[in-house]
Amino acid sequence: MRQIRKVAVLGAGTMGAAIAGHCANAGLDVELLDIAPEEGDDKNAVVKGGFERMTKSRPPALMAKSVADRIRLGNFEEDFERIADADWIVEAIIEKLGPKQELWARVEKTAREDAVLSSNTSGIPLHEVADGRSEGFKKRFLGTHFFNPPRYLKLLELIPTEDTDPAIVEGMRTFGERVLGKGGVIAKDTPNFIGNRLGSFAGMQSVTYAFENGYGIEEIDAITGPLIGHPKTATFRLNDTVGLDIAVGVAENLYEAVPEDESREDLKPHPKLKEMLERNLLGNKTGSGFYKRDKRDGKTVFDVLDLETFEYKPASDPNVPLVNRAREQGDLADRLRYIMDNAEKDRHAKYLRDTLLPYLAYSARRIPEISDTLVDADHAMEWGFGHKAGPFRTWDMLGVEETVNRMKSLDIEVAEWVEEMLASGNDSFYREEDGRELVYSPLSKGYEPVYEDPMVVSLDALRDEGKELERNDSASLLDLGDGVLCLEFHSRGNSIDGNTLEIAKKALAALERDDVAGLVIGNEGSNFCVGANLGEVAFAAKGGMLQIVEKRVEALQNILMAFKYAPKPVVSAPRGQTLGGGLEICLHSDRVVAAGETYMGLVEAGVGLIPAGGGTKELARRIVSRPLAKAPDAPVLPFLQKAFETIATAKVAASGLEARELGFLDEDDLVVMNADHLIATAKREVLDLAASYAPPEKGQNVYAAGRSARAALEVGVRTLQWGRYASEYDGVVAGQSARVLTGGDLSLGQWVPEEHLLRLEREGFLKLLGNEKTHERIEAMLRTGKPLRN
């Protein structure tokens, strides 16, 4: 399969436009085409409408506004020939067989002979879509089913037909993983494939069970979220997010398409759901669903639907003792076993048992109908629905044989192949053997290696292999091989505390060794680093121990400067929230390999502080000093204002691409779409840099603009205060940022060493930390997770 650089997306509806947007996020050139309207002069009216809705969607479909420039709009009537040079053509038009077949007949006449051809259909058999096409067409045709929204959901179902070339399927899986950042699963050409087949069953039967057994909306959402390894949206909030019309429509279409399914009746939407559709209570898209967002007494509140009257009432915090008791048991496996053991004496545990076990059993009964592998079924639910564990990994947690016995006691049908597996002496779906993970195959009736993405480096697997060199409660130092080490944070929120700095010192010492090529700073948490441990800061400030804080701040500065000027390359690999000190680590690295979904920002102003780990200094160096070094006569104020506004308003990049626009990433830094590839890519960058590495030179490398520039920045703050856009204390905090950025009390602009601004950072940080209003902001953040404007 040739390299894919240009994509043609046919259909600019919700999914088509979003797929086009995500391909553009990945750096591909995109043709987005749709029908020309029958009336009106603008032949692109339809495609423009879909494109504009996509660019305004929430959450944003595009990683940066500039990404839209990679998408060219057109229509089927005037611009169809543009698909002739596309490497991949994906169709996402109306879900009707006739129009799809007609469109593909046109495509076959126009497309290159080696272009990959795919449909995003979720309800029409792929072999029927390809019916009538040539043998050459069918070899390169498959389903590529994205989950909505494509930017955020990892799952990409690949659905070959009997005629699809296996090399095309594997090529698209690799392309999906490495370019689009997806996790590919191979699904059979059956109704709703894997994710929606299992998800519809689980969703409809769990809602029906709740309605018919007197469970309330709030109490079900309290127990079906993180407690059992599912997202916070749980059950009813998930339906509001997806849209009840979508959830019901998928289930109804599936019901019609699977007359042979023994559990078909469980797919039927409950009558109350149908009544909600009639009342247009579809969820977030209509403003009202199971929940309704409202304002009372100046506060945002969520009311809940009364399913008897279909009116809204204030949502209550349900009293569910099971939640706390189960959490006390430990990890997900411990919680699930505790829930199963208490199902006969706790009504909430009973609900979870009576909905979870049918879902597990149904998943097994659908194998190998929908997929040949248990791994793909698990990944479909993990990547498409955000479950911590798919059905078979969950079943293993509960114990396969014990769970089968529970199912039989509840008259739940168990798949024959599961009983055969147990009878042959195999008591788990997954097992470890010689350092490899194996999975049971119902087809071969034995264990086979689990497919492994070669670009994924597992730090936990390295730990199991004895590659962990140092460890405490907050951080570890691991050996990635080839002379590359990894500094991993694993404190709460991956925040920076004293223990983190201790392991960082050991990493720095290791960089002096001849057998070490360099260092990766990264981890496998959802967030790279949320900054300093605010709890420690608050405790020290309240106790009047500012000297201890000063020493800790200076220690952080010294360590980050040591990383910057280390004898070997240091590469940071951020993902998720990379805030405050987390961003400062990246700013002092030789290179950054950031996930597409990386949210970077110097957010200290939100808690009444300024960046003091070198963050203010680095923005002054990058945003102000660099352009002035290239053009000494350029006016300094525009550059200074950009750096100042970024810090004073606590701007956070909404993606890795936007982080580059804000100046947090350099041109040489990389943005990787697949977060699971970060450690491997960062290791490769270390080795590339190590071949001819020399540390950066120290010197007078920061331009400090002086008192007059500082006054100009402060006038801007005053203007915001007069317009009531900033509070009086916002001005105090911003004033400290301005002081550091401009060099303190310097009368004239001049070049200064980095240490000059680092000293000013420490002074400003400590001065603010001694203010009661900063204490109030920190306490509010720790208590509510939201900034306080005092």
From TrEMBL:
What reaction gets catalysed by this protein? Answer: a (3S)-3-hydroxyacyl-CoA + NAD(+) = a 3-oxoacyl-CoA + NADH + H(+)
Q: Which UniProt keywords apply?
A: Fatty acid metabolism, Lipid degradation, Lipid metabolism, NAD, Oxidoreductase
Domain 3-hydroxyacyl-CoA dehydrogenase NAD binding, first and last residues per copy: 6-189
Q: In which pathway does it act?
A: Lipid metabolism; fatty acid beta-oxidation
- Location of the 3-hydroxyacyl-CoA dehydrogenase C-terminal domain: 193-292
A single GO molecular function term of this UniProt record: NAD+ binding
User: SUPFAM superfamilies this protein is in?
Assistant: 6-phosphogluconate dehydrogenase C-terminal domain-like (SSF48179), ClpP/crotonase (SSF52096), NAD(P)-binding Rossmann-fold domains (SSF51735)
Please name the GO terms of the biological process aspect recorded for this protein, alphabetically.
fatty acid beta-oxidation
The record ties this protein, via InterPro entries, to: 3-OHacyl-CoA_DH_NAD-bd, 3HC_DH_C, 6-PGluconate_DH-like_C_sf, ClpP/crotonase-like_dom_sf, Enoyl-CoA_hydra/iso, NAD(P)-bd_dom_sf
Q: Which family does it belong to?
A: Belongs to the 3-hydroxyacyl-CoA dehydrogenase family.
Protein name listed in UniProt: 3-hydroxyacyl-CoA dehydrogenase, NAD binding domain
Q: Which organism is it from?
A: Rubrobacter radiotolerans
